[in-house]
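Researcher: I'm preparing a figure for a lab meeting and need a structural model of a single chain. I don't have an experimental structure, so a prediction will have to do for now. The sequence is pasted below. Please return the structure as tokens so I can convert it later.
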Amino acid sequence: MIITGGFTGGRTIDNNNRFEVMLNELFGDDIRSSDDFAINLWSSLANVTWIDQEYHTIQYSFRAAGDAVAAIRGDGDYMDWYCSGPDAVVDATIANALSQNGWSYEL
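Model: Understood. Here is the structure written out token by token.
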């Protein structure tokens, strides 16, 4: 599944997207309290393919990655995070936590 986005004014967490719900559960406090962590999440989502144990895939465009970060923070919109870091650079902390929840990635 490819997630596209770019919601001016922001949006809420997509409770139908189990990956986004998991991101909030795992990293929500860190994303809300640390701009650096939020940037690392954007970089770990933009142009990265995440694959679960059942071979479901999810990919976020640059805008959609920004949407996800803003939604989890509960503040702003995709432009606040759009290109905030290098794309397709997966943070080790994020990769390890997602791996423990059955997700791996491909660049």
